[in-house]
Model the fold of this input.
Amino acid sequence: MALRRTGSSGFLVAAALGLISPAQAQSASAAQAGLGARAASTASSAIRHTFVTAGGRAEIVEETAPLATTPSSIGVNTSGALWTYPDNGEGWVARAVTLGNAGTEVFTEFDTAADRASLLSGFDVTPVVPVWADPVAIASTNVRVHGSDQTGLFVSCRQIPVTQNGPRSVVVSAYTSSSSMAQWSWTFPTPTYGGSRAMVSADGRRIVAGMLDPNTATLHVAVFDGGSSIPTGYFSRSVGLQLQAIVLSEDGHTLYAATQSGGYLFDVDTGTLIQQIVLLQSFAAQDISGDGSILAVGYFNGVDVWERQAAGNYLRTWQGSWPGSIVCQQLDVSEDGSTLVLGFGYFDQNLRVRIEAIDLATKATLMVDEAQGGGSLQNIVAKVATSANGQRFAVGLWGDEADLVPELRIYRRGQNTPVATYNYGGSVYDLAMSRSGDRVVVGRKAVHANTLAGGGSVDLYSNGDEDFVAVGTPSIGRKVDFELWGAPNSPARLLLAPHPSTNLFPIGSIGVLYLRRSELTILPMPMTDSVGYSRGEYQLPLDPAAIGTTLWFQGLTTAPRRFSRDFVQLTILP
Done:
């Protein structure tokens, strides 16, 4: 989505902030209509965290507006590890992690030791202290978690044995970042020996949970709308044995489930089957786009792409083929349907992996990267995750015994080599990427997955240089530090508003004001030093009523005058 220039209000804001004179504002406003193609042709591109709340839907967009020259010190706050949260001797393995609230919150649940659901702040620093923890049944297993990137809503799906070695009850719990107590928990009426999962739509308005009863080969699906603690919809269908995949489109309207006998596309609103797809092979590598219009299925030596037609049915529009001893182990379709990221494993020795990205409009190959491990331990693709626009993606591997292949690999669309790799002593089990692609969370085991041992960590990474960041868990009564990089030896300001702007456009060369101008508060920060760095603090209210309130912050330097390219969306936590 490109920036829209809407009228002269931005220049009047600049005048009100003292960035330009009233006469300059009027002159700039009059020249606004003439910017058009000239401004677009000279724009410098940078992926920004632009949050648009119109219609209740938040969007990450790519800013292509002209900005002031970036100071040389911008690289001080470079991409890389933000923090790590180890098991500290508790023995848990991080097998289920997710992000929420624009990548600012991490949710996880442990089911191998010290069983609990936990919320971690994306603004925290090592040593990480969880914001809260909710103990769950010590016998819980097969946990899966999922979060809404637009809100602080998370869902957990765990299984608890009814009797020892017997079937398991499937328990679905909804959490918000504001409380350690689940908003609600609900249990499927039928226990199971099969698979299960729960997912939340991107806007947080719908939770969908599914489980397979292998005794009757029936998929059961429960739908929870608007925060309801009991299903607002429930349907079931005979689908066969061994649940391989179950995914919800980000808009919450389409559900796809796959078993050994086929793939099934459901209309969640009505509970009806849209279409059944015959699958000769069925594995975990299956996903749908954000609106459910594109389905990708991976298998031995191939990948199929199915696309929804005007009549509502799906047709296979592409079939990719890869010769040799290769299988698609994981894949992900970007939310906007532009990019398909594939993770292959070569099963001749289980040491080599292949990462490939496909442009879904043209079916052209965008990038290829292969990594060869050594030793006897299996190096497989454990998880793939993309940003909403498909421009960035992350891949997690089990790794190899010879330690030749880094387990976490972060890529950009169209570039064969990773932009960053991180090498572990153990294996990645799960990972998630924020819709913007700016944050990646990893759940891992301390040793290789083939090794019988416990222990692990949850790790958070930044995926891009930032010139304005918050540091410190934003709990009530605490101070949060803000770091700003701008022009050297310049007065600095901290801008604050309770809402983001919905009309974004550049104010000359000063940059873009992301905060709502009519609600703006301007606070002092220390002058930047000789390399352009300033660090200030903001005191959060010591008031339980403030929990769940979201504030927006941005930085400003005044000599020369420039808004920070980044802003911070900060939700006050317990």
